Amino acid sequence: MLKDARQLREQVRTSGAPAALLLLLMAATSISATTLTIIVPALPELTRLLKADPATVQLTVSLFLVGLAAAQLIMGPLSDRFGRRPVMMGGMALTGAVSLLAVVLANIESLIVARIFQAIGASTGIVVGRAIIRDLFERDRAASVLGLVATVMVIVPSFAPLMGGLLDAAFGWQAIFLFTATTSLGVMAWVALTLPETSTLNVIQGETPSFWADLKDLARARLFWGYVLSGAFASATFFAYLGGGPHVVVSLMGRSPSEFGVWFAISSLGYAGGNFGASRLAVRLGSNTLIWLGIAFEAAGASLAVLLAVFAMDWGPIIVFGPQTLMGIGNGLLLPAAIAGAVSIRPRAAGTAAGIMGCTQMAIGAACAQLGGMLLAGATSAIPLALILAGVVSALIVSYVWLGPRRR
């Protein structure tokens, strides 16, 4: 093991996070992103082989997201009550077992159900991973480590579809589920062999853990909701781009889907850069300053989006992806600090806090993606997308000014 929990925390305090711990947390976090996107290239093949309509097959992706969001509300509190190790191991075992079962399924309805259970298990990598980081690190150091670990969430969604396409072409869609099973069960074994139980570090002697008391304290904490909503609205700008960006670039500008993909991959470097900046600056500047710095980039990106949409529509995809890059930097800076702040309000309930934050992020993000798709469907310019972004960033600023830490 990586020593027992107290020895590990002391090592973290004096010498920094061990590379083995960071790699494990990155691997656990990547399971959800991998499982979500690796199946996308195989959707047309599933439509043909399982004799299903495309809308039904698409539910393997959309309901996966629903399951991923809802499961975090369950897995977070369970990790507070029963421990980080058993919950993460159980989640990875569930994803692995269901992935193996999916190989022999012969109809789309069963496959959709399997994908939902995959999501429930995979959610533990996100929510429990965030709680473990808070168990071991004080708030600003936690923001730094979260920024480092979050870089995997940029890389994995970019390469997982490529991996899925290669597996589907070479061996069929079943190979995708075998790959998911192998990686999930591998992470489960890694956790079992090396990770100590860290939730015990937050237990106060003589205090009886109470889920409802912890939930009540979090619900009453104004600052907790300031961190949760600022993180949710910041990440919602990315989902708004997912919903409206393809219509602007492909439908209005006449560019190919592959060109859209290239631009999107390039602009994602902004988020990776912001994550790296958070990992370097969180301890030096503090989490709250990092959030304000992220808000500044978000506001600059939204303002630029409006200006370019009104005055420079003929400039091509740069009017979409230039602002997105700026806002990606803001996201990369802000999100690790907001997550660290939310899970630090009540350390004993770090899992519950992480679950609430993750679910809120996905719920608001999904709403913004749907709104972007609806408003852009009949649009003749990028102005509706720019206005959505400006509105989301305005909500981000208002929520943090109203609910964030008070300044003297």
Describe this structure in words.
- The protein is mainly alpha-helical and 408 residues long.
- It has two domains: 5-198, Up-down Bundle (Growth Hormone, Chain: A), CATH 1.20.1250.20; 212-403, Up-down Bundle (Growth Hormone, Chain: A).
- It contains 16 helices and no strands.
- The longest helix has 31 residues, at 222-252.
- The radius of gyration is 21 Å and the shape is globular.
- The termini are far apart.
- The mean pLDDT is 85.
CATH architecture identity of the largest domain? Up-down Bundle
Strand and helix order? HHHHHHHHHHHHHHHH
Give the number of domains: 2
Task: Tell me the radius of gyration.
Answer: 21 Å
Number of strands: 0
CATH class of the largest domain: Mainly Alpha
**Fraction in beta strands:** under 5%
Could you estimate the helical fraction of the residues in percent? over 70%
Question: How confident overall, as mean pLDDT?
Answer: 85
Class inferred from helices and paired strands: mainly alpha
Let me know the largest β-sheet.
none
Silhouette: globular
Low-pLDDT sequence parts: none
- In CATH, what is the homologous superfamily of the largest domain? MFS general substrate transporter like domains
Continuous helix count:
16
- What CATH calls the topology of the largest domain is Growth Hormone, Chain: A
Distance N to C terminus: 45 Å
Short description:
By secondary structure, the protein is mainly alpha-helical.
